């Protein structure tokens, strides 16, 4: 299991577009990728749940990656956050 | 209570607009036609060679005059019907018919009493008239209005009455003309005894006018204006115009009596140096406020109307103002504010009286055929020369009047917030249904509700019903899908038989069917009718299928507008299907509807998008416009909140289409299924133009 904590810098937060991209990216991996905000945890591949979190600019989220390809998944997902969010 | 009465009054005022809309046209026809067929006019201006009885031009003008006049002559009937239509809550056509019948009955009743008491000769002069061939009391539009209001009240009370089985054919709406006839028979009798008393009281005011000099002229003007709505002005001014009450004068050796007769005798006489103001004081006062004052008041109402309503009210006010200016027919204009703002009318009466008095003082001698428009001013003032008429004062005083009317009216409307045309609140119609109305409706509903509920279910739900009508014994319904009709449920509702003819279904209830129909229509208007679940009656096929998280489902268009394939949407997140499969619509109107029954999962804080989970488990994202997250909620109004149960077609978000476009955003609004992977096939079943609520997507 690998995890990282991230403070959202993008003005609009995780709205439809980044959520879609993130969700799509997550589906590439066999690992289970969870995202947590304010003690609510959802699976990143569940696009609607992800949007439902309502992550906004300035929010702190924790992403946890568990599974066979957690190394690469962790790498790519954290890269995605840095670049897009 | 006060606001309630006010609301009713406003509704009355609005119900007058239907007949009033006709008046400017009729007024122009009448004004132009009658001015140029008046024998004295023709002779004075030597037009007899051009316009003579039997000639083409005369005939055309005469047709104009008569067709215009027939509208004004029958104004009471138009009001009886128009007001009944405006005030009836439902089945308005029945109210209109009842209004017409009641008006005839009332007059017939009065007519018979007049005949049996010695005929018209035994009545006071000018107190009677002929309406639709019936000799009756002169009551003006007041007669029509009391019929219209009364009939509407009877109608709203009785249109759903149920009579004992033997008489049931006469129940429901059919009862309305019957009861209206009976009631107005009695009203007619009552009027015969009451109205002449009022009339004689009014006529006696004439002496007051004669004894009071200039002030008397003012009284004359005020009273004449104030009586117009009641049709009482005829008994009042006619004596002045036509009898010795209005003065007597020897002209060219003949004794002439009555103001108008004197004026026209002077007009025909070659020896007239100046027109006698003793006669014209009963006429000239109309010019300043008809040509200048009232049109300025119309402009004030136009200016006071809300900007978005100005165009609509502008056309009404402008045509009414032109009619007043040209012909001196003021009813179209006066009636627009008389009922909604009686206080404005009171001010108008006072100013009108003052105008008569000023014309008297300034020695203005302009006569008229019947009213004070530009046509009459030209013929009987300007063309006669200022030396004879002092007509220039009409213009001078008139300009002052225009200013005063504009300022006074504009001030009153805005300060007192009077609801003149174009100032009504938008939700007026809904507002008028106050709690009392709602409760009353609930009670009425309760009676027929169970029956209606069964009928709706039997017909395959509200959405399956496209049209309802009834004949003497049968409810006739057109349904969209005939296979959804359930005969046994319909019979359970009290029907003695069900007949199918393609998409037409006839359900036989017997003579009380009109009540069944009214109840059914009421029920269909209530939100409850949406909840009738026809699936209960039909074996469900949905429960059996699909092992996945989501069951098959149909989504209906979320908007009205033009369909765009998702792959053509100019946003990669959608066009590359990153957010899921779906379809987009470029909306024509800013109302986002629910595409299915389900629950609101999440409304985005920025109000431009929301997530829905349908009852079948389909996860839907509705996203208004592209990149509109940047608007931070501006121009969007959300009508639901997280966790709300919603139904197909519910209004979810309204948005300001124009402003969003103006800000440079693409308004294309995708509807995508976020859990597309849960479905084998997602098919778009709409194309080109779509209306909200039409089938859009089938997901299997």
Question: Short summary of the structure?
Answer:
The complex is a heterodimer of chains A (85) and B (700). Chain A has helices at residues 16-27, 47-52, 70-84; strands at 2-7, 32-37, 40-43, 60-66. Chain A has 85 residues and is an alpha+beta fold.
Attribute tags:
heterodimer; A: 85 residues; alpha+beta; Histidine-containing Protein, Chain: A; four-stranded antiparallel β-sheet; 3 helices; 27% strand; globular; B: 700 residues; Gyrase A, domain 2; Glucose Permease (Domain IIA); eight-stranded antiparallel β-sheet; 49% helix
Please tell me about this protein's structure.
The complex is a heterodimer of chains A (85) and B (700). Chain A has 85 residues and is α+β, with helices and mostly antiparallel strands. The longest helix of chain A is centred in the C-terminal third of the chain and has 15 residues, at 70-84. Chain A has a single domain, classed as HPr-like (Histidine-containing Protein, Chain: A). A four-stranded antiparallel sheet of chain A has the order 1-4-2-3. Chain A has three helices and four strands. Chain B is of the alpha+beta class and 700 residues long. Among the domains of chain B are: 75-193, no CATH class; 451-511 and 519-536, Glucose permease domain IIB (Gyrase A, domain 2); 553-699, Glucose Permease (Domain IIA) (Distorted Sandwich), CATH 2.70.70.10. Helices cover 49% and strands 14% of the residues of chain B. Chain B contains 26 helices and 22 strands. The A-B interface holds A 12, 15-17, 19-21, 23-24, 46-48, 51-52, 54, 56 and B 571, 573, 578-580, 601-602, 604-606, 609, 611, 613, 619, 621, 623, 629-630, 674-675.
């Amino acid at each position: 299991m690998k995890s990282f904590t991230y403070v959202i810098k993008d003005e609009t937060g995780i709205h439809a577009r980044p959520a879609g991209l993130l969700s799509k990216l997550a589906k590439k991996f066999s690992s289970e990728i969870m995202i947590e905000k304010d003690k609510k945890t959802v699976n990143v591949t569940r696009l609607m749940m992800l949007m439902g979190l309502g992550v906004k600019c300035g929010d702190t989220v924790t992403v946890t990656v568990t599974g066979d390809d957690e190394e690469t998944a962790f790498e790519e997902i954290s890269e995605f956050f840095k670049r897009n969010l | 209570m006060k606001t309630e009465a006010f609301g009713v009054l406003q509704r009355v005022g609005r119900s007058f607009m239907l007949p009033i809309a006709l008046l400017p046209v009729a007024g122009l026809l009448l004004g132009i036609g009658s001015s140029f067929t008046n024998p004295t006019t023709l002779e004075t201006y030597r037009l007899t060679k051009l316009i003579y009885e039997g000639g083409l031009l005369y005939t055309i003008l005469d047709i104009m005059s008569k067709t215009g006049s027939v509208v004004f002559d029958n104004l009471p009937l138009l009001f009886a019907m128009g007001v009944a239509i405006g005030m009836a809550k439902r089945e308005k056509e029945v109210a209109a018919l009842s209004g017409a019948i009641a008006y005839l009955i009332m007059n017939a009743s009065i007519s018979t009493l007049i005949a049996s008491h010695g005929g018209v000769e035994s009545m006071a002069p000018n107190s009677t008239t002929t309406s639709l061939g019936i000799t009756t009391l002169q009551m003006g539009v007041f007669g029509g209005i009391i019929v219209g209001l009364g009939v509407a009240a009877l109608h709203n009370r009785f249109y759903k009455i149920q009579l004992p089985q033997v008489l049931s054919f006469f129940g429901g709406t059919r009862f309305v003309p019957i009861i209206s006839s009976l009631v107005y028979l009695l009203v007619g009798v009552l009027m015969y005894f009451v109205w002449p008393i009022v009339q004689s009281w009014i006529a006696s005011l004439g002496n007051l006018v004669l004894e009071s000099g200039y002030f008397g002229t003012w009284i004359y003007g005020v009273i004449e204006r104030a009586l117009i709505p009641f049709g009482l002005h005829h008994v009042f001014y006619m004596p002045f115009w036509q009898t010795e009450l209005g003065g007597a004068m020897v002209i060219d050796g003949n004794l002439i009596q009555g103001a108008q007769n004197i004026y026209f005798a002077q007009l025909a006489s070659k020896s007239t140096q100046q027109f006698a103001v003793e006669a014209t004081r009963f006429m000239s006062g109309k010019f300043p406020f008809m040509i200048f004052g009232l049109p300025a008041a119309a402009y004030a109402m136009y200016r006071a109307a809300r900007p978005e309503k100005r165009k609509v009210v502008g056309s009404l006010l402008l045509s009414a103002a032109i009619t007043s200016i040209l012909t001196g027919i003021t009813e179209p204009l006066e009636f627009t504010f008389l009922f909604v703002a009686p206080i404005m009318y009171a001010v108008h009466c006072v100013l009108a009286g003052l105008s008569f008095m000023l014309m008297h003082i300034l020695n203005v001698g302009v006569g008229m055929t019947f009213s004070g428009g530009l046509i009459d001013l030209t013929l009987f003032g300007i063309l006669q020369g200022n030396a004879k008429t002092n007509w220039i004062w009409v213009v001078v005083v008139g300009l002052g009047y225009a200013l005063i009317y504009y300022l006074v009216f504009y001030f009153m409307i805005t300060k007192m917030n009077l609801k003149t045309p174009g100032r009504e609140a938008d939700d007026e119609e809904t507002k008028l249904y106050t709690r009392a109305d709602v409760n009353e409706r609930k009670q009425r509903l309760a009676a027929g509700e169970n029956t209606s509920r069964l009928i709706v279910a039997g017909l395959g739900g509200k959405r399956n019903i496209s049209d309802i009508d009834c004949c003497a014994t049968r409810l006739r319904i057109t349904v969209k899908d005939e296979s959804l009709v359930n005969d046994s449920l319909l019979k359970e509702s009290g029907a003695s038989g069900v007949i199918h003819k393609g998409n037409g279904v006839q359900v036989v209830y017997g003579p009380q069917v009109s009540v069944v129909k009214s109840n059914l229509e009421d029920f269909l208007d209530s939100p409850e009718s949406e909840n009738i679940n026809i699936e209960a009656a039909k074996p469900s096929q949905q429960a059996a299928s699909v092992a996945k998280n989501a069951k098959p489902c149909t989504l209906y268009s979320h908007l009205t507008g033009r369909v765009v394939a998702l792959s053509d949407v100019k946003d990669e997140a959608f066009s590359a299907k990153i957010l899921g499969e779906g379809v987009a619509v470029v909306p024509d109107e800013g109302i986002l509807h629910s595409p299915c029954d389900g629950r609101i999962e999440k409304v985005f804080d920025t109000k431009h998008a929301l997530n829905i989970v349908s009852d079948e488990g389909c996860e839907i994202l509705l996203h208004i416009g592209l990149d509109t997250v940047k608007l931070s909620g501006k121009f969007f109004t959300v009508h639901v909140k997280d966790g709300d149960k919603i139904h197909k077609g519910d209004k979810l978000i309204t948005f300001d289409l124009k402003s969003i476009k103006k800000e440079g955003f693409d308004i294309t609004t995708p509807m995508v299924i976020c859990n597309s992977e849960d479905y084998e096939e997602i098919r778009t079943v709409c194309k080109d133009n779509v209306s909200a609520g039409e089938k859009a997507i089938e997901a299997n």
